[in-house]
Amino acid sequence: GENVEQHPSTLSVQEGDSAVIKCTYSDSASNYFPWYKQELGKRPQLIIDIRSNVGEKKDQRIAVTLNKTAKHFSLHITETQPEDSAVYFCAASLAGGSYIPTFGRGTSLIVHP
Amino acid sequence: EAGVAQSPRYKIIEKRQSVAFWCNPISGHATLYWYQQILGQGPKLLIQFQNNGVVDDSQLPKDRFSAERLKGVDSTLKIQPAKLEDSAVYLCASSLGLADTYEQYFGPGTRLTVT
Q1: B84 φ, ψ to 5°?
Q2: Sequential DSSP letters for A28-59
Q3: By the CB < 8 Å criterion, does A106 face chain B?
Q4: Rounded CA gap, A11 and A23, in Å?
Q5: Which residues contact A56 (CB under 8 A, 6 or more apart)?
Q6: What phi and psi values does residue B51 have, to the nearest 5 degrees?
Q7: Partner-chain contact B103 A89, CB within 8 Å
Q8: What are A66-107's pLDDT values in tens digits?
Q9: Nearest chain B CA: its distance from A26 CA (Å)
Q10: Where do the DSSP E strands lie in chain B?
Q11: Could you give the angle at the alpha carbon of A20 between the alpha carbons of A56 and A101, nearest 5°?
């Protein structure tokens, strides 16, 4: 089955800095890679996703890049703000007839004002 | 639109007792997922339903866990008997289940503590 590794487990930055979280996956057939943000005590929420036919996707201050050859994808947050503080999870899956994602262990992002 | 509803929000039981969790997905969502999230880890899929049929339950400990989705809407997840290592947040999620549409909407979760 799919295995997703996520690094770092904790990331501490100053407000305004950029943050990068990296994930690797094992199944070369995986073709859908979502990122979720989970604030303390709240439910995970999808913030951005990317499919295997695209190398990069941006949405305001967040972007995701995908390197299919190396089987890794990254989340980039620019101009970080204190409200970006949360746990971020990556996931990988083979999306087709059914969608069964495998999640990484999460990265706790702390943005210091 | 209303979100995914779960109850109870918190549950404390002793080991070897039984517990059940309930999930009501977003109206019209065909796919329903149950995840176990242990503190400090990502969600781990326990079971996935498409309408009232099971798509994947390969990671469900079937000797103690069971789940059903009668009529393809609400779902219940049961643990009997519970073990200490079952302490976790149990998340329910739903999605439309249509081709090329994969976004999952999560419920608030049920935090289970087994003592």
Answers
A1: -55, -40
A2: TT--EEEEEEE-TTS--EEEEEEETT-SEEEE
A3: yes
A4: 14
A5: A50, A63, A64, A65, A66
A6: 55, -120
A7: no
A8: 999 999 999 999 999 999 999 999 999 877 667 788 999 999
A9: 17
A10: 5-7, 10-13, 19-24, 31-37, 44-50, 53-56, 65-68, 75-79, 88-95, 105-106, 110-114
A11: 65
Are the Cβ atoms of A44 and B48 closer than 8 angstroms? no
* Contact predicate B46/B56, CB 8 Å: no
Cis omega (within 30 of 0) for bond into B81: yes
Residues of B in contact with A106 (CB under 8 A): 40-42
Ramachandran area for residue A52 (φ above 0: left; ψ -120 to 50: alpha; else beta): alpha
> Higher pLDDT residue, B38 or A54?
B38
Q: Are A28 and A71 in contact (CB under 8 A)?
A: yes
What's the rounded mean pLDDT across residues B40-53?
A: 92
